[in-house]
Amino acid sequence: MASQDGLAALGVEGASAAAHALSLPAEAYGNDPRLEVMWAMKAYNHAEVYFNLISSVDPKFLKLTKLDDRIYSSFRETFKDLDVRQLKEEDLKSDQAKERWRPFCNQFEGLVEDFNYGTLLRLDCQKGYSEENSIFSTRVQFFAIEIARNREGCNEAVYRSKEPRS
């Protein structure tokens, strides 16, 4: 992942202003490109923290939310055959996929904080975040897929690749 120059360049006051701006309702803004950059930086920082986490802690022991069990069971009930190891863009973005994802995501409104915020998701769970291996998803989609990957052992390859060799 790239350096943190984006946030550092803002300074304390700028970062504070950015945090405040991101907490305002969407109606407070038009199509402000500065806001899009702030959201992209927030998504990037979330991705970096998460990847560092699964690289240093055995993912099968991670708990991402208070609702992991509920999210996972609902996810696997709705998406029984979805291969979380290797996602395709159509799994999230096709019209058919959106029709299935919408009710799934909406059931967590008010339960999962920022459930529909934009988040970066890896397509191939054995690889890191890159332009080719990342897609925007909602936060609850990210949680559902990453909880499944952790519980089903899919993220273990990332963790094992960072273990010191003896």
Offer a few descriptive terms:
single chain; 166 residues; mainly alpha; yst0336 like fold; two-stranded antiparallel sheet; 7 helices; 6% strand; globular; disordered N terminus; Polysacc_synth_dom; PBDC1_metazoa/fungi
User: Which overall shape is indicated by the principal axes computed on the Cα atoms?
Assistant: globular
Radius of gyration: 17 Å
Integer count of domains: 1
Order of helices and strands: HHHHHEEHH
Could you give the order of strands across the largest sheet? 1-2
Helix content: 40-55%
- SS elements, strand count: 2
Organism: Oryzias latipes
InterPro entries: PBDC1-like_dom_sf, PBDC1_metazoa/fungi, Polysacc_synth_dom
Pfam families: PBDC1
Protein name: Polysaccharide biosynthesis domain-containing protein
How are the SSEs placed, and which strands pair?
Layout: H1 5-23, H2 33-56, H3 68-78, H4 90-93, H5 95-106, E1 118-122, E2 134-138, H6 139-151, H7 156-162
Antiparallel strand pairs: 1-2
Helix pairs in contact: 1-2, 3-6
Please provide a written account of the structure.
This protein has 166 residues and is mainly alpha-helical. The chain has one domain (5-162): yst0336 like domain (yst0336 like fold). Helices cover 54% and strands 6% of the residues. It has helices spanning 5-23, 33-56, 68-78, 90-93, 95-106, 139-151, 156-162; strands at residues 118-122, 134-138. It has a two-stranded antiparallel sheet. The longest helix is centred in the first third of the chain and has 24 residues, at 33-56. It starts with a helix and ends with a helix.
